[in-house]
Amino acid sequence: QVQLVESGGGVVQPGDSLRLSCQASGRTFSWNAMGWFRRAPGKEREFVAVRSWNGANTYYADSVKGRFTISRENVKNLMYLQMDSLKPEDTAVYYCAAAKGFVETTNPDDYDYWGQGTQVTVSS
Length: 124
Hints:
With 124 residues, the chain is mainly β. A hairpin with a 4-residue loop joins strand 7 and strand 8. The protein has strands spanning 3-7, 10-12, 18-25, 34-39, 45-51, 58-60, 68-73, 78-83, 92-99, 111-114, 118-122. Strands 2, 4, 5, 6, 9, 10 and 11 form a seven-stranded mixed beta sheet that branches. The chain starts with a strand and ends with a strand.
């Protein structure tokens, strides 16, 4: 059974940092692009970041560029999202996802597997 499990969410203050982790199991995703999405209360799910299978390409939403960093440890089937300088508008449930192929994509329809999500709340 293929599973993606996120961890690392929590409640932090503006300006703080968090690192989210995504552990994949059931198969290897070394050859797949993997990404992070989020859904804020009352809003649609939105793309956050994606990293290609070999790390050659990464893309970020404009709203997080320069503050968030996506990384992977393919050998361990792990993916991370380092989030710095957090803002209240970053409050959302964050989801990791594995793409159908190796091409990095921002379209959620191109992702086959999704985690259950982890809550990130940024509040003073």
